TrEMBL record:
This is Adenosyl-chloride synthase. The lineage of its organism: Archaea, Thermoproteota, Thermoprotei, Thermoproteales, Thermoproteaceae. Pfam families: SAM_HAT_C (PF20257), SAM_HAT_N (PF01887). Residues 14-156 form the S-adenosyl-l-methionine hydroxide adenosyltransferase N-terminal domain. Residues 181-264 form the S-adenosyl-l-methionine hydroxide adenosyltransferase C-terminal domain. Keywords: S-adenosyl-L-methionine.
Length: 269
């Protein structure tokens, strides 16, 4: 046996998504735990600016980004208003990835899209576990152990049921699309649940759409932001394939009082 054999180096990506922000020490503590267990882990920040306790937005962001990471990436998503309660700490193994976080739906959109292979209730954790910081004490160590090649079955017990969120869809009837707002980005652009396929039933680029909801909006349907004049309200298909409302050089969400979860009706004016 060659005792001088080069040791295996585990340089697995661990991607973090939280609502912790960057002002406090919370994210750094999670990274410290991960790197203490596996100093070779590659820790990547997705975002820590999910609105506080906004499980839906966390789930949507995770679904939008996970597929661009290398196979085997471990995602840790901590948006956890139920921390310290009986909600389970969850590990989902999918066809290509691992997802770690609370069993409140934040993992579900991404994991279901990739295809869940197995689910576990995490039992591995730090020796002392607080009731308010499972990101540090439960989820970070589980991700770190996974990055060392430890089997998920060694970290917890199989789970049969876990919480799933359902993404809203648009419905076309009587010449209109009935949809919901689902996400607002930092530019104030508003994603709706209507897809490019949905919109084809209704309009073509150049048409004007009337959007009825908290406000009545007239938006020209364009192919890209660059076709809008400064201050003009437009609708377009964004990079995720959803119909988006935007104001060139402005903020559509603030201007029209839009936020995720609102019902809207879209028709051609």
């Amino acid at each position: 046996m060659n005792v001088f054999k080069k040791p295996v180096v585990y340089a697995v990506v661990i991607a973090l998504l939280t609502d912790f922000g960057t002002k406090d020490y919370f994210v750094a503590a999670m990274k410290g735990v991960i790197l203490s267990i596996n100093p070779n882990a590659v820790v990547v920040d997705i975002t820590h600016e999910v609105p506080p306790q906004d499980v839906w937005t966390g789930a949507f962001v995770l679904k939008s980004v996970y597929k661009w990471f290398p196979r085997g990436t471990i995602f840790v998503a901590v948006v956890d208003p139920g921390v310290g309660t009986e909600r389970a700490p969850l590990l989902l193994q999918t066809r290509n990835y691992f997802f770690v976080g609370p069993d409140n739906g934040v993992l579900s959109l991404a994991a279901q899209e990739d295809g869940v292979v197995a689910a576990y209730r995490i039992e591995a954790r730090l020796p002392r576990v607080s009731r308010t910081f499972h990101g540090r004490d439960v989820f970070a160590p589980a991700a770190a152990y996974l990055s060392l090649g430890i089997s998920p079955s060694m970290l917890g017990a199989p789970m049969g049921q876990w919480k799933r969120l359902e993404a809203p869809r648009a419905e076309y009837r009587e010449g209109a699309l009935y949809a919901h707002t689902i996400y607002v980005d930092r530019f104030g652009n508003v994603y709706t649940s209507a897809t490019e396929e949905d919109v084809r039933q209704l309009a073509s680029p150049g048409d004007v759409l009337c959007v009825e909801g908290p406000a009545t909006i007239r938006a020209r349907y364009v192919e890209a932001y660059g076709y809008a004049s400064p201050g003009e309200t437009v609708a377009l298909i964004n990079s995720e394939g959803y119909l988006e409302l935007a104001i060139s050089m402005g903020n559509a969400a603030a201007t029209y009082g839009l936020k995720p979860g609102q019902a809207i009706k879209i028709r051609r004016c």
